[in-house]
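Pasting two entries for a bug report.
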Amino acid sequence: MRRQPAARGGRTPGRRAVEPRAGGRSGRAGGHVPAGLQRAAGYAWRLLIIGAALYAALVLLGRLALPVVAVFVGLVVTAVLRPVADVLGRRMPRAVAVLFTVLGAILLVAGLFVLIGETIAGEWTRLGDEFRGGLDRIERWLEGAPFHIQPSTVAGLQAKFGAFISAHRSTLISTAVGEATRLIEIVTGAVLALFCSVFFIHSGDTMWQWAQRQLPADARRTWARGGRAAWRAFAGYTRGIMIVAASNATLVGIALTVLGVPLALPLTVLEFFATLIPLVGSPIAMAVAAVVALAAKGPVTALIVLALIIVIGQIEGHVLHPLVMSWAVSIHPVAVALSVTAGALLAGVVGAAVAVPLVSVLWAVVSELRSPQPKV
């Protein structure tokens, strides 16, 4: 039998060559997916998984809000008091140094609140008289230029306010009972935070080393770098914001005392704690002080207190933050504003206070892990 000659180009007769499709892939017509769409789809499902994980974490943290906040406050206390314990620990046993440091801080805070209580109790009668006179001055001010509000309108507003209080008395009472329950939770969280802070101050390094030993051996060095960067950022931010808050409170206390505004000490303490929430805390506290000044001293003093909001804001933004916070963290004001807003929407006041240090820690960890690893 004669063999058939090979076809031109080395192809065997009767066997059809398969031509490759466009893009180097074979399959049905129209089955090719562009490479850009494939990458976008890959990022999309990964982002969906990350988003679902973050949502689950937020839900879990919401369910465990009390211990989570207690641990956060414990870390704040540790960042503030640990340097003091370290200094005392050079001259006495570590446990005794921690005991002296914590007890001294408790006595200081307790003494401050006792002083505030005595100040309010001592000024209560005079303050009531000033507030009643202040309300009369506000009414006369509203009735005069430039508002020219009719006295009947002011009396009608007072009557509506009294009617609202009477109609919603039961709701207000139930809200007060609910706040009393929340007060018990706050006391419980404070005790838990104090308990955690004692151990964090005494043996926080040992606890972190134990946690690292539970990780795989090849991941310990990375976690150690990230943990050191996180603690440096958190401690630096905490100490820096405490210095800024104390400076703001000192300026406010001096100004309110000079202006003769009643409750200057409680308003100063309010300013200190409000400044712990960046951007929005200090103006809110100063607005409260302006209301007190308006009721007690009249509109001129209230306007001066309102002007202090701008002055203290400029000092805080252009002097204190660059000098105090630049060595700890460096976050753009836009990032701070977005962080505070997102934290407030997710978890209220607690979220607004926690948002900026959390973002600072995350950014510090990312920056540390992106930098070249030092050679051993």
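Entry 2 (this is the one that rendered wrong in the viewer):
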Amino acid sequence: MTGLDPGASHTAAPGSRLSEVVPPTEVAQLGDALRTGAVDVASVAGDFGNRVRRVPSAVLRPRTPADIATAVRFGARLGIPVVPRGAGHAVDGQAQTGRGVVVDLTASADVGVPGSDRISVGAGARWGAVLDATLPAGLVPPVLPDFLELTVGGTISAGGVGGASHHHGSVSDNVLDLDVITPSGDLVTCSPDRDRELFDRVRGTQGEHGIIARATLRLTAAPASARRYLLRYADLAAFVADQRRLAAEGRFAHVLGQIVFDATGRLSFFLETAATFTASSAADEPDDEALLRDLRLQGIEAIQTLGLRDFLGRLAPLTAQLRATGSWQADPHPRCNVMLPGDAVEAIAGDVLAGLTPELLGPGGSILFIPIPSARIAAPNVPKAAADPLTVLFGIQRTAPAGEWDLVARMRAANSALYAAAEAAGGTGYTALSAYHRIRARGDHDDE
């Protein structure tokens, strides 16, 4: 990374030596799970946003949920922040602290043996590893994020939406039970039938009410293949109208919209849909003509048939390319995701697009739409536009060249304006708002 954002606060060294504030007997309980070495703490000091760096006093790589509970108890008693971290895909320092302990949940990445309709996994397990366990058994979670390198616990803490959410709601709506370490350090198993209040509080609230240590996920029968359709649209109105219609009708298993700048600097509108199937004969394959009939598309960019694992992991080549260029690791990513009421999407998106330039989106940047009938999101604290029958995740996936902090500041100002517009229209931030308040509460917030 080329420097750090001068508009943010940073800690270049641990905020305090843990041994100065925590009794040695308590530190000893955690053994080598608690590490204070310079390499260890530096490994959790940044995130995908590449804008903020906060070096903690220690990093906990838990061997069991009991290790997390021990750390949370002494943190609660002594006023030391204990902050959970999954894959580090946050963009504004939500999983960092300049004093205290970061819990590296990727150390808890075990994946159990799938049962007939469920699987138990550690919170730090990546979704790709979950699929590696379930697909050979002919099973799959009903909803997955489109980026499979996220952790299960982090996704549930955010809520979790994807291309199948118009059928099955959020990832959090497809959890059967959770093991949670509460803010007081108690290890509690919760579910719809057991401590329902805690179960509801921890899903979609970004770790404010506890650290998820383990999850039991619902599984359904996995189709063998997916027919992917990349549909091109001439304008925003037709693009938004077809998303609304397809989310309501459910004719596709997967619906996701994307807007990008083409090589000439013009906006291009694409709708990615997919029909899943298990082909034993040609008659079992999707009827392309019937599926695409009466849509307002301008043209068909591509139709391809993929194995289910290849379809679900279709972003892997793109992320590999970004890593190869160094952009993934080095460039700031001031991204912004909001949940908009369906009736407000076209107006708000239109305002955003009117002021958007290739520079303000950045190289490889895109605008994401995921339409979800609001009733499908049943977990009470997962963000949605409750007063509208349709919720649309509207995300601006920005990238700025490393070191161009004036541009980052302009991008973040545009993001703030979008958050304000979303709230004024009856929507909400997807993850950033709750995380923002939590960061301020523990005193690590940026200077802005």
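Dev reply: Rendering is fixed now. As a check, the viewer should reflect this: The domain at 225-436 is CATH 3.40.462.10 (Vanillyl-alcohol Oxidase; Chain A, domain 3).
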